[in-house]
UniProtKB/TrEMBL annotation:
One of its GO terms (molecular function) is oxidoreductase activity. The lineage of its organism: Eukaryota, Fungi, Dikarya, Ascomycota, Pezizomycotina. Transmembrane segments: none annotated. The keyword Oxidoreductase applies. This is NmrA-like domain-containing protein. Keywords: Oxidoreductase.
Amino acid sequence: MSLKAIMETVLVVGSTGNIGVSAVTAALRSKRNVLAVVRNQSSADKLVKLIGSSKGITFAEANVLSDSGIKGVVEQVREGKLPAFQHVFSSVGGEYTTTPLPEITTAQLRSNFNVSFEANFFAYRDTIGYLLEQKNPATTWTICTGSQGDLATHPVPAMTQGALFPMTTAAARENESTTVRFNEIYLGYRVEIDELAEQHGVTKSSDFANVYELLLADPNVRSSRVRVDDLDDLKKLKYQKKF
Ligand SMILES: NC(=O)c1ccc[n+]([C@@H]2O[C@H](COP(=O)([O-])OP(=O)(O)OC[C@H]3O[C@@H](n4cnc5c(N)ncnc54)[C@H](OP(=O)(O)O)[C@@H]3O)[C@@H](O)[C@H]2O)c1
């Protein structure tokens, strides 16, 4: 069998963000290919610049905010126009703002729920069937949420994170006995793309990538919340069943 035939592919939704770049890095470091969903060519260019190369990355342009965006990507995969994938990582995210509740406009509320909740929901709803059909115990589905959902120092991202918690618990339940390992990475501190992380004194995307690499490699992590509370959690997975 050729190397190409045995290489897995990770579909990354939100691939150009602080967290998405970590997922792309983890996939490439673990000798997997990446199918990166991007909104346009300039986002694709941004990702190539951040990763330093386009090797191993196929781009799929789609509007992840629409309820047909990811569906269209899966259709193209089924038609053989895009590579088959065995893993999904989703981390579409909106504003990281401290706007207090009374000042949040209706438009701001709705657009943030669309970006940070609906887009991740669509990504799950419209890819899980494709993974299940493969009946392959090596398949996984992973999402990144954060402690903002509990702390709420930043109300807008806190509310959208909060809405993701029950979605991830439901997905963890629904896949407890399926071939897909569903997991939530619950991040308790700030991660940014390497250049900004250095400027801001926060954790680099390339370091956070270790967590997804470890998760992909460990078949015991299933229907769980992987907690990343301190720097040691980048070296050893801390996880617990979600229910
Ligand atoms: N970073 C952290 O420290 C941290 C901590 C805990 C939890 N999280 C959670 O992880 C998720 C991602 O966070 P992040 O820091 O990676 O966010 P980010 O850097 O802002 O990235 C957001 C991603 O979503 C995409 N996106 C945003 N608006 C979009 C739109 N209107 N249409 C299409 N794509 C859009 C961006 O694409 P473009 O590049 O094209 O804009 C990018 O790929 C969020 O749910 C966040 O709450 C993050």
